[in-house]
Structures are given as structure tokens and as C-alpha cells.
Design goal:
It is a single chain. The protein is mostly helical. It has a domain of about 80 residues. It is about 65% helix and about 0% strand. The protein has 2 helices and no strands. The longest helix is centred in the first third of the chain and has 75 residues. It is rod-shaped. The model has no long low-confidence stretch (mean pLDDT about 85).
Length: about 130
Amino acid sequence: MAGQRTLEQRLARTMGGTRFGVVGLLAVVAFFAGLLVLANFHVVVIGDQFEFDRLERRLESGLEQAQVLRNEVARLESPDRILRVAEGRLGMVPPPERLQLNLVLSDDPESGLAAPIGDPFAAGDR
């Protein structure tokens, strides 16, 4: 009976130890799996941050390029520059005297200009 009791005690210790060993092993595996998931999430976040930084740099570069182009358009549309190009490259000269036409209203009797009769834009006998 003493031999059987010691055998049962050994068996109980072994089963208890095995249970703790399996539970402990599962806990360690779960812990490392959690760490692996956390590390994977961290890698995804870092990758997205790099992509965000790259897009932000492209946006800043685009804004700088747009500002440079706006300055170039303003320079090219400058009236002084257009006048210099017209005179220099195209050989155009300003007229010696600028003729200014007076405004003529169609219902003004003093203008001496009669209003057109009918539709002047209609296709007809031209």
C-alpha cells in the first residue's frame, strides 16, 4: 500500500507539473505571439509614416514649384516686358499720336449716326 501511495503521489506531482508546464508553455507562446503582432503593427505604422512623410515632401515641392511658376507668369505678363519684346524682337513701334474714338450711343440724336434698320447680322443681300 505504501508503494502504491508513493506511485500515486508521483503521478499526481507529474500531472500537476505537466499541467503547469502546458499552461506555462501556452502562456509563453501567447506572450511571444502578442509581441510578434505588436511588432508587425509597429512595422505597418512606421511604413505608413514614411509614406506620409514622402507625400508631405511632394506637396511642399509642388507648392514651391507652383509659386515659382506664378512668379514666372507674372514676370512674363508684365506690360513693360511685353513692350520691350514688341519693340525689340518684333520691331513694333508705338504710334506717334494716339487716336481716341468718342463713344457713340445709338439713341443719341446729336451723334449724327443713324441706328441700323433691320437686323444687320442677318444673312441677306451682301
